[in-house]
Amino acid sequence: MNLRRVAKVVLAVVSLVPALLLTRGLIQARLGPNPAETIQLETGIWAFRFLILTLVVTPVRRLTGWNEAIQYRRMLGLLAFFYAALHVTSYLAFDVLFAWGLFVEDVVKRPFITAGMIAFTAMVPLAITSTRGWIRRLGRRWQVLHRLIYVSAVGAAVHYLWKGKVIYGTPVIYAGLVAALLAFRVVWMARKRRVRPQPAQS
């Protein structure tokens, strides 16, 4: 097993620790007076953290020249989807008891849930098409499709900001990180267009 594979295994194991701790806490009744809220909050935050880390990979690669960083982007994206799926499932289980009518009503009437579901829905095709087979099938369209990660990140930021009645603290920091990463992409693409060689004139 080469060093890169070992690093991926270690990353996967460490990244699953929060889910394992939540499971143990639920079994041992150590998640505080409102376990449902604790589970929803923790899984949502971890989903957002891994989503931000996924977005960080490209700037790190471009600024440092560490091209191997790209090898970890897919895993980070799948971890973000894993925690997001746990987050949505815990909401369905604890808040609406899998009553789909109540779920649809919540999505329509509560803006922060609307934003959260937009974020999660955008992640679904990214997770499905993350395999090498799908990359080959889609070709250049795969890169276009995977720009949905920015839709997901913005939706997650809005969801986290709107969840609280007062906008301050951690949600603002996370939203700022998303804004900075989006700004980096815009600036990088603009710079790339400026330095693109012009076709020779006859």
Short description:
With 202 residues, the protein is mainly α.
Low-confidence parts: none
Class inferred from helices and paired strands = mainly alpha
Q: Estimate the global geometry from the Cα principal axes.
A: globular
Give the C-alpha Rg.
Answer: 19 Å
Question: How would you describe this protein?
Answer:
With 202 residues, the chain is mainly alpha-helical. It has one domain (3-191). The chain is 79% helix and 0% strand. The protein is built from ten helices and no strands. The protein has helices at residues 3-15, 17-27, 35-64, 73-94, 100-109, 111-128, 132-138, 140-145, 148-163, 170-195. The longest helix is centred in the first third of the chain and has 30 residues, at 35-64. The model has no long low-confidence stretch (mean pLDDT 90).
Features:
10 helices; 202 residues; globular; mainly alpha
List the helices and strands and how they pair.
Elements (H helix, E strand, L loop, with lengths): L2 H13 L1 H11 L7 H30 L8 H22 L5 H10 L1 H18 L3 H7 L1 H6 L2 H16 L6 H26 L7
Helix pairs in contact: 2-3, 3-4, 3-9, 3-10, 4-6, 5-6, 6-9, 9-10
